[in-house]
Amino acid sequence: MAERSDAARNRALIIEAARELITEPGELKLSAVAKRAGLGQGTLYRHFATREELVRALYDREIDELVALADRLLGEHSPDEALRRWFTHLAAYARVKFGVIAAVEASVWHDIGAQTPGKLGEALTALLTAGRADGVLRDDVDSRDVILLSWFLAHVEEEEWAERTPRLLAVLLDGLTTR
User: Fold this and answer.
1) What pLDDT does residue 107 have?
2) Which CATH number does 52-176 carry?
Protein backbone atom coordinates (compact mmCIF):
# COMPACT_ATOMS: atom_id res chain seq x y z
CA MET A 1 0.00 0.00 0.00
CA ALA A 2 1.39 3.39 -0.98
CA GLU A 3 2.20 5.91 1.70
CA ARG A 4 -0.28 8.78 1.96
CA SER A 5 1.04 12.08 0.62
CA ASP A 6 0.84 13.82 4.02
CA ALA A 7 2.66 10.90 5.66
CA ALA A 8 5.35 10.98 2.96
CA ARG A 9 5.69 14.75 3.42
CA ASN A 10 6.00 14.37 7.21
CA ARG A 11 8.60 11.61 6.82
CA ALA A 12 10.63 13.83 4.46
CA LEU A 13 10.38 16.76 6.92
CA ILE A 14 11.60 14.55 9.76
CA ILE A 15 14.56 13.22 7.77
CA GLU A 16 15.53 16.72 6.61
CA ALA A 17 15.35 18.04 10.18
CA ALA A 18 17.54 15.14 11.32
CA ARG A 19 20.01 15.95 8.52
CA GLU A 20 20.29 19.50 9.82
CA LEU A 21 20.57 18.56 13.49
CA ILE A 22 22.89 15.56 13.24
CA THR A 23 25.87 17.72 12.35
CA GLU A 24 25.40 19.87 15.45
CA PRO A 25 27.30 19.09 18.66
CA GLY A 26 25.64 16.87 21.21
CA GLU A 27 23.28 13.93 21.08
CA LEU A 28 20.60 13.83 18.41
CA LYS A 29 17.34 14.12 20.34
CA LEU A 30 14.10 13.01 18.72
CA SER A 31 12.20 15.80 20.46
CA ALA A 32 14.50 18.36 18.80
CA VAL A 33 14.00 16.68 15.42
CA ALA A 34 10.21 16.83 15.80
CA LYS A 35 10.39 20.49 16.80
CA ARG A 36 12.71 21.37 13.87
CA ALA A 37 10.38 19.52 11.49
CA GLY A 38 7.39 21.43 12.88
CA LEU A 39 5.65 18.21 13.85
CA GLY A 40 4.51 16.60 17.06
CA GLN A 41 6.51 13.85 18.72
CA GLY A 42 3.69 11.38 18.07
CA THR A 43 4.04 11.97 14.34
CA LEU A 44 7.78 11.41 14.55
CA TYR A 45 7.34 8.17 16.53
CA ARG A 46 4.78 6.86 14.03
CA HIS A 47 7.54 7.04 11.41
CA PHE A 48 10.58 6.22 13.54
CA ALA A 49 10.19 4.34 16.80
CA THR A 50 13.87 4.83 17.72
CA ARG A 51 16.68 7.21 17.03
CA GLU A 52 18.54 4.40 15.27
CA GLU A 53 15.65 3.92 12.82
CA LEU A 54 15.72 7.62 12.00
CA VAL A 55 19.50 7.66 11.59
CA ARG A 56 19.30 4.61 9.32
CA ALA A 57 16.68 6.34 7.15
CA LEU A 58 18.84 9.46 6.94
CA TYR A 59 21.91 7.44 6.04
CA ASP A 60 20.02 5.43 3.40
CA ARG A 61 18.72 8.64 1.85
CA GLU A 62 22.19 10.17 1.73
CA ILE A 63 23.67 7.10 0.04
CA ASP A 64 20.80 6.81 -2.45
CA GLU A 65 21.20 10.48 -3.35
CA LEU A 66 24.93 9.99 -3.99
CA VAL A 67 24.24 7.00 -6.22
CA ALA A 68 21.59 8.85 -8.26
CA LEU A 69 23.82 11.90 -8.49
CA ALA A 70 26.55 9.98 -10.36
CA ASP A 71 24.26 9.28 -13.32
CA ARG A 72 22.84 12.80 -13.32
CA LEU A 73 26.30 14.38 -13.31
CA LEU A 74 27.47 12.13 -16.13
CA GLY A 75 24.52 13.33 -18.18
CA GLU A 76 25.44 16.98 -17.62
CA HIS A 77 29.26 17.08 -17.53
CA SER A 78 32.41 15.50 -18.86
CA PRO A 79 33.40 12.41 -16.85
CA ASP A 80 36.29 14.09 -15.04
CA GLU A 81 34.12 17.09 -14.12
CA ALA A 82 31.29 14.76 -13.07
CA LEU A 83 33.71 12.90 -10.79
CA ARG A 84 35.00 16.17 -9.31
CA ARG A 85 31.46 17.37 -8.58
CA TRP A 86 30.50 13.95 -7.20
CA PHE A 87 33.43 14.09 -4.77
CA THR A 88 32.27 17.52 -3.60
CA HIS A 89 28.93 15.94 -2.71
CA LEU A 90 30.68 12.96 -1.14
CA ALA A 91 32.55 15.36 1.13
CA ALA A 92 29.26 16.96 2.20
CA TYR A 93 27.90 13.48 2.89
CA ALA A 94 30.97 12.69 4.99
CA ARG A 95 30.08 15.58 7.29
CA VAL A 96 26.64 14.03 7.83
CA LYS A 97 28.28 10.66 8.34
CA PHE A 98 30.28 12.06 11.28
CA GLY A 99 26.98 12.83 12.98
CA VAL A 100 25.56 9.43 12.12
CA ILE A 101 28.55 7.64 13.63
CA ALA A 102 28.32 9.73 16.78
CA ALA A 103 24.56 9.16 17.04
CA VAL A 104 24.50 5.37 17.02
CA GLU A 105 26.25 2.60 18.84
CA ALA A 106 29.14 0.87 17.10
CA SER A 107 27.18 -2.34 16.51
CA VAL A 108 24.33 -0.46 14.85
CA TRP A 109 26.79 1.61 12.79
CA HIS A 110 28.45 -1.56 11.48
CA ASP A 111 25.06 -2.80 10.24
CA ILE A 112 24.15 0.57 8.68
CA GLY A 113 27.57 1.08 7.07
CA ALA A 114 27.82 -2.43 5.59
CA GLN A 115 25.82 -1.39 2.53
CA THR A 116 27.97 1.62 1.66
CA PRO A 117 30.76 0.04 -0.42
CA GLY A 118 28.29 -1.74 -2.71
CA LYS A 119 26.06 1.22 -3.43
CA LEU A 120 28.86 3.78 -3.70
CA GLY A 121 30.91 1.28 -5.67
CA GLU A 122 28.22 1.17 -8.34
CA ALA A 123 28.19 4.96 -8.62
CA LEU A 124 31.97 5.16 -8.73
CA THR A 125 32.19 2.41 -11.33
CA ALA A 126 29.86 4.38 -13.60
CA LEU A 127 31.97 7.54 -13.15
CA LEU A 128 35.28 5.71 -13.65
CA THR A 129 34.04 3.78 -16.69
CA ALA A 130 32.88 6.98 -18.39
CA GLY A 131 36.19 8.68 -17.60
CA ARG A 132 38.17 5.75 -19.00
CA ALA A 133 36.08 5.76 -22.18
CA ASP A 134 36.93 9.45 -22.65
CA GLY A 135 40.58 8.79 -21.87
CA VAL A 136 40.66 11.22 -18.94
CA LEU A 137 40.76 8.77 -16.02
CA ARG A 138 43.27 6.04 -15.23
CA ASP A 139 42.29 2.50 -16.14
CA ASP A 140 44.23 0.79 -13.35
CA VAL A 141 42.03 2.08 -10.50
CA ASP A 142 38.72 0.54 -9.49
CA SER A 143 35.88 1.75 -7.29
CA ARG A 144 37.24 -0.06 -4.21
CA ASP A 145 40.55 1.79 -4.60
CA VAL A 146 38.72 5.11 -4.72
CA ILE A 147 36.54 4.25 -1.71
CA LEU A 148 39.63 3.36 0.31
CA LEU A 149 41.41 6.54 -0.79
CA SER A 150 38.41 8.71 0.07
CA TRP A 151 38.20 7.44 3.65
CA PHE A 152 40.38 10.36 4.65
CA LEU A 153 37.11 12.31 4.77
CA ALA A 154 36.21 10.48 7.97
CA HIS A 155 39.36 11.73 9.66
CA VAL A 156 39.47 15.44 8.85
CA GLU A 157 38.74 17.42 12.01
CA GLU A 158 35.93 19.97 11.98
CA GLU A 159 38.24 22.94 12.54
CA GLU A 160 40.41 22.04 9.53
CA TRP A 161 37.61 20.85 7.22
CA ALA A 162 37.25 24.00 5.09
CA GLU A 163 40.98 24.31 4.42
CA ARG A 164 42.12 20.70 4.18
CA THR A 165 39.25 18.87 2.44
CA PRO A 166 39.31 20.74 -0.91
CA ARG A 167 43.10 20.29 -1.11
CA LEU A 168 42.92 16.56 -0.34
CA LEU A 169 40.10 16.07 -2.86
CA ALA A 170 42.20 17.85 -5.49
CA VAL A 171 45.12 15.50 -4.78
CA LEU A 172 42.82 12.48 -5.03
CA LEU A 173 41.29 13.65 -8.32
CA ASP A 174 44.70 14.53 -9.73
CA GLY A 175 45.85 11.01 -8.96
CA LEU A 176 42.89 9.54 -10.84
CA THR A 177 43.43 11.47 -14.06
CA THR A 178 45.60 10.41 -16.95
CA ARG A 179 48.72 12.34 -17.76
Assistant:
1) 45
2) 1.10.357.10
